């Protein structure tokens, strides 16, 4: 497993593979998966965090089921561009995943993704309780959609391979 750049993604997404997005929280892991045309990010149910080995097993089973070829992990960068403790936790998660999977990871600046996801859920008239159960996967979808849009803006033709 390795950390790759967004430009390296297309080579990992051939043969009908999809792309997953993760929003790593202390209590949950938000998950989203692209469609096969890499146009849309679709939220999946959150993974409730327990301990790493159990979280990794559940995540890898989901990623295998969804035929994922690479994973985008939201990197919580501070507004001033520095990395704090949450960013270090995300980097540690990727290092730990290297021991159990060879899936490549892209680290993606996730500043304000949770805020944007919450606004969207509010606009969709979700109650506070329903938002709490969906916010992490909505944030993962927001992160993943940002990467999908960036790939299209770069003119990367990942889906023709």
From TrEMBL:
CDD domains: YqgF. GO terms for molecular function: hydrolase activity. Keywords: Cytoplasm, Hydrolase, Nuclease, Ribosome biogenesis. Its main location: cytoplasm. Its EC number is 3.1.-.-. Belongs to the YqgF HJR family. It is found in: Cytoplasm. This is Putative pre-16S rRNA nuclease. Residues 17-117 form the YqgF/RNase H-like domain. Could be a nuclease involved in processing of the 5'-end of pre-16S rRNA. Gene3D superfamilies: YqgF/RNase H-like domain. It comes from the Bacteria. Pfam families: RuvX. The keyword Nuclease applies.
